[in-house]
Amino acid sequence: MAFGRRNNAHVAPTTDYGAPAVRSNRLHRPLLALNHALHLASSLIVLGISAYFIHDYENTTHLRYWVAIASVSTFFYLPTLVLPAVKRYKGYLAPLAWVLSYLWLTGFIFAVQDYEYNGGCAVNSPRFVNKCSLKRTVEAFTFLAFFTNVVGTLLEARLWDVQRFKHTRVAPADDREKHHGAGGAAPGVDAPVAHQTV
């Protein structure tokens, strides 16, 4: 018995600095799935409106960019609706969400330039088409897609961080003695001498 603790007791996992390891929250995975669903819905709305503009009106560079980024997001985010429910999933999509957040930020900047400046919404993307409600919808949902990517990056990174320490534990003193001899040190290495206080 060392310091009032049983040798065979389960020791809580700790980080490298000795602090208690982080624990997972029960709402973490459902929040992650909800965030992915919201991002997927935003991507589909941007994709649908932009594809409608390309099909029926003039094809501009920003419309093509929105269709491209929304298509990529839809392709990658379809499986993410079920990934948080899988226990073995540990937040591996954090880098992808981080990269896509920059692409969506660029798309939002393009939407603001087209629909708020440079002549207003009736003049740009597509040119001289007075469908400002649809254009502002694209602007709003590009921002929502960007925001959900940022939140998704944070949630995915937190999930990865939590899962790193989930199944680790510190070996009790008895286990160290079994593997390294009576002193607990490796063979051929002297065990450290404890300082005695008076």
From TrEMBL:
Compartments (UniProt record): Membrane
Keyword match Transmembrane helix: yes
Alphabetized UniProt keyword annotations: Membrane, Transmembrane, Transmembrane helix
InterPro entries in UniProt: Marvel
Positions of transmembrane segments: 31-53, 65-86, 93-112, 140-160
GO CC entries: membrane
The organism's place on the tree of life at top rank: Eukaryota
Matching Pfam families: MARVEL
Main location: membrane
Signal peptide boundaries: none
Domain MARVEL: from-to ranges: 37-153
The name this protein goes by in its record: MARVEL domain-containing protein
Native source organism of the sequence: Epicoccum nigrum (Soil fungus)
